[in-house]
Amino acid sequence: MMDRARELDAADPLAKYRVHFILPDGLIYLDGNSLGALPSATPAVMQRVIQQEWGEGLIRSWNDADWFEMAARIGGKIAPLIGAEPQEVIACDTVSVNLFKLIAAALQMRPGRKIILSEPGNFPTDIYMIEGLERQGLATQRLASREDVPTALDEDVALLMLTHAHYKTGELFDMAALTKAAHEVGALVLWDLSHSTGAMPVDLGAIGADFATGCGYKYLCGGPGAPAFAFVAERHHRDLKQPLTGWFGHARPFAFSDEYEAAPGIEQLQCGTSPVLGLAALEVGVDLIAKIGVKRLHLKSQALSEFFLECVVELGLELELVSPADSAARGSQLSFRHQHAYAISQALIARDVIGDFRAPDILRLGFAPAYLRFEDIAEAARHLAEVIAGEEWQRDEFNRRAAVT
Ligand SMILES: *Cc1c(COP(=O)(O)O)cnc(C)c1O
C-alpha cells in the first residue's frame, strides 16, 4: 500500500505544490473542505498589508493600495474557477448573507411567485436563509428530496436553490440538467458552490446559471471566516435589486447622497465596507488555487479518493460508504456512516489524522488535492483500520462532545 502510494506521489504533477502550504509535520489533514490549509505566502502578505498599508498608509490605502477595488478584483480571479466572466463575481460577506441577498433578488425578479425550492438536508444555513425570508412574508419554502426536485419544479417556483456538492455526502447535482429544467418553468437558479469551488471546475456560463455563491475558507484557502463570493449572470445586472442596500453597493459611495442608487454592475452586491484583511488573505489562496488549476485539482482529488477506497478494501475494512461510489458523481470527499463516527473521528484526531464528524453518524474525510499526498491517504486508511480494529474509539475521552465538531 505504501509502495503504491509512493509511486503515485512520484508521478503526481501537483506534488510540487505541497510546499506552498504550511502544514504541521506529521499531521494528516483531511479537513480542507472545512477550513483550507494556510498558504505559505499568506503570513508575509498579511504582514505587509497590516504594517505598510494599514500602519503607514492608513486611510490613504483605500486608494493607494487599491483597497476599494479589492472585492471586485478578487471576484474577477474567482470567476475563471467557476466558468464566469470577471465582471460577474465579487468577493463579499458570508455565504449566508449572499444567499439572503440573492434569494430576495430572485423573488423580486419573479413577481407573483414566492416559492423557493430546495432539498431537505441541504446545508442548514441555506434552508435557514429561506426561512428568514419566509418570516418576512416574502418567500415560501418548498423542500423536495433530490429525486423529486424535477417534479417539484412548477410555475409557482421563483427560485431553485441547491448546493452542487452535498456537504455531508459529497453527492453532486447535475447542474446543467436542473438549471435547464428550472428555466423551462420560468424559475431562476441559485447554486451554492461552497464544496466545489477550488476542488473541481464548474461552468456557470455554459449551463446558463443565474446566481451562485460559495465559500472562501474551504478549498480556496482564504483563512477562517474568509469572505465568500457571489455571482450574478451579467444578463441580470440591469434588473438586479438586492435588499441590503448599504453604501458600498451604491453607484458612488463617496458622493454621500441621501438617495440610494445601486451600482450598475456586480458591485451592487456589496453592503458595507470591505473586510480588507480578510480579502488580502483570500486573494493569496485564490491566486494559488488558480495557478495550480481546477481541472488538475479535480483529477487529483478523484485519484486520492479512489486510492483511499482501494486501501480500505486492502485493509479489509468494512465501512458503509454514503458518498457515491463513482468518483464522477461526488465532490472531493468520502463520507462513511458509522454508529460511533464521532468517537472514531476523535480517536483519529488523537493520532494526528484530522477529518470531521457530521451529526448524527457521518465520518467525513475531505481530500483537498492541492496539498495532500497519496502517502497521507495510505497512512490515514491504516490509522482508521487500527482505530476500528482495536476499538480505540471506545475510550471515554473520545466520546465527549466538543462545541465544534
Ligand atoms: C460552508 C458552507 C456554507 C458556509 O456559510 P457561511 O455563511 O459562509 O458560514 C454555506 N453553505 C454550504 C453548502 C457550505 O458548505
TrEMBL record:
Is the keyword Hydrolase in the record? yes
> Entry's Pfam families?
KYNU_C (PF22580)
EC annotation?
Answer: 3.7.1.3
Q: Which reaction does it catalyse?
A: 3-hydroxy-L-kynurenine + H2O = 3-hydroxyanthranilate + L-alanine + H(+); L-kynurenine + H2O = anthranilate + L-alanine + H(+)
Name the domain of life.
Bacteria
Please list every transmembrane segment annotated in the UniProt record, as residue ranges.
none
Functional pathway:
Cofactor biosynthesis; NAD(+) biosynthesis; quinolinate from L-kynurenine: step 2/3; Amino-acid degradation; L-kynurenine degradation; L-alanine and anthranilate from L-kynurenine: step 1/1
Q: Which cofactor does it need?
A: pyridoxal 5'-phosphate
User: In this chain, where does the modification N6-(pyridoxal phosphate)lysine occur?
Assistant: 218
Q: Where does pyridoxal 5'-phosphate bind?
A: 96, 123-126, 163, 192, 195, 217, 247, 273
Any one GO molecular function term: kynureninase activity
Q: What class of enzyme is it?
A: hydrolase
UniProt entry keywords in alphabetical sequence: Hydrolase, Pyridine nucleotide biosynthesis, Pyridoxal phosphate
This chain's function reads: Catalyzes the cleavage of L-kynurenine (L-Kyn) and L-3-hydroxykynurenine (L-3OHKyn) into anthranilic acid (AA) and 3-hydroxyanthranilic acid (3-OHAA), respectively.
Q: How does it assemble?
A: Homodimer.
> Which family is this sequence assigned to?
Belongs to the kynureninase family.
Give the protein's recorded name.
Kynureninase
* Gene transcribed to yield this protein: kynU
